[in-house]
Amino acid sequence: MPRTILMGDPTYFSVLGGANPHTRNVMGIRKSVDAELARKQWHGLARALVARGAEVCVIEPHDGMSGLVYPANAGFLHPLAGASGDAKTFYLANLLPTRASEREVYHPFLEAMGYRCVQVAARFEGEADFFPAGRFMLFTHGRIERQRFVPRLGIPPWRRVYGFRSESSAGEELRRAVKERPILALELCLEAHYHGDTVLCSFGPEREFLLAYMAGLTPPSRERLRAEFRGNLIELAESDAALYAANSFQADYEGGLYLFMPDGVSDALRARIRERAVEPVLVNVSEFLAKGGGSVKCMILDLGPIGEQSGDPSAVEFRAKRSYELVFPNPPPQ
Fold it and tell me: Helix and strand tally (H, E) in the chain?
């Protein structure tokens, strides 16, 4: 069944804090966004999703909150599928301090969508680090650091420490939330791949297949993943991983499965995906990766099948008002 998806209006997309390695150049200077290009790419992704049956709802822009364009960090919906919207709970993320104010935007928006909302207390960045894969919920975490510059030998004579976004202690709260489903905890180790959805992507009829950039995980986590997924694991080449091939999103449409992927991924990878009866759809969102450190999946919050959304009249009316086609009746030409 087609999905309901949340995307964030790109009007104020920019680099404000420079909170991951993609946002700064080698000298540590924050990059500048090509706003027109970003806007065209954002609409290209939204149109591609709508063309394959997705209901795209758009969260309004807020000046000074450029991170709203990456709503995968907002939290996660549980259960994602298999229950009516009135029986689902949205768990709000506890974001990076520079993005903490976003929760006050997401909370009323998601309640208006018809979901009961609960806040996660531990540092945790939503379905970017917590998502289904086969029989598991994958939970990715890493060391939380105070972001700072530290001296080093080389040019420039400093490096910036970024750290990761979800702390391991969040696992206990997540277990209570999804108690009926086992959690597979995995540790991240590359700051350029600071969320799990930049390293791992589940897809297939039961999301049983997994794209994985193994270098982005610690050795024990790699072995754990290989032991659990075996032949369902597709290990990404470094060239595909650098394009954030793992930051892809699967949608259903008219009986087919489509994996929306960053433009430029290799023919070999696309062939392996087709072998598993899933059709790749390439979308160019390069400005969002090169400047903000997020690609296709970062720009999407999955709210489950359209047919399982809340039937409350006020929620139905709200979704209609925030639909992509109504918010942008005259989108920019491609």
Answer: 9, 17
The single-letter code of the amino acid at 197 is: D
Domains and CATH numbers, the chain: 3-327 (3.75.10.20)
Between the CA of residue 135 and those of 28, 131, 214, 272, what are the distances in Å?
41, 11, 20, 22
Strand order in the sheet with 233-235: 200-203, 209-212, 233-235
> Which tokens is 220 given?
């024990």
∠ CA 82-83-84, nearest 5°, is: 140
DSSP letters for 214-241: GGGB-HHHHHHHHHHHGGGEEEPPHHHH
What are the pLDDT digits (tens) for 230-250? 999 999 999 999 999 999 999
0.70 exceeded by the pTM?
Answer: yes
How many residues make up the chain in this entry?
Answer: 334
